[in-house]
Amino acid sequence: xxxxxxxxxxxxxxxxxxxxxxxxxxxxxxxxxxxxxxxxxxxxxxxxxxxxxxxxxxxxxxxxxxxxxxxxxxxxxxxxxxxxxxxxxxxxxxxxxxxxxxxxxxxxxxxxxxxxxxxxxxxxxxxxxxxxxxxxxxxxxxxxxxxxxxxx
Length: 152
Hints:
Blueprint: H1 2-11, H2 18-27, H3 33-43, E1 50-52, E2 55-62, E3 65-76, E4 79-89, H4 94-103, E5 106-111, E6 116-120, H5 123-127, E7 132-138, E8 143-150
Antiparallel strand pairs: 1-2, 2-3, 3-4, 4-8, 5-6, 6-7, 7-8
């Protein structure tokens, strides 16, 4: 009986908002695959990770949401970068202009019209160049939040 009640309490926990998931799973972990794996497991509700095209992918569905979480290292013209993307349905168009307020810390628009921001947890990190680039895109039915960090 107690186990059933505990299971019901765990499974009935509300799904975090997409921006909160993004902060917890992509920004706070710096897109590190092991850290994202641990954070997704701690949060619960995510599928087991699978490898797809060199990236690690998780899926979460239920309670009116569908989310994909994709993490991995990518080649870039200036070296390698760590990328973490959360795609959520339904769309959250307000995040395009409101992401800076959601992230907290220091956020500066690199190209606000394109939804690209530079983020750091505080002024010292920002001055030191410890910056995560955040890209927000919205389609008709989904919103994607991407955190990109250079691999040093």
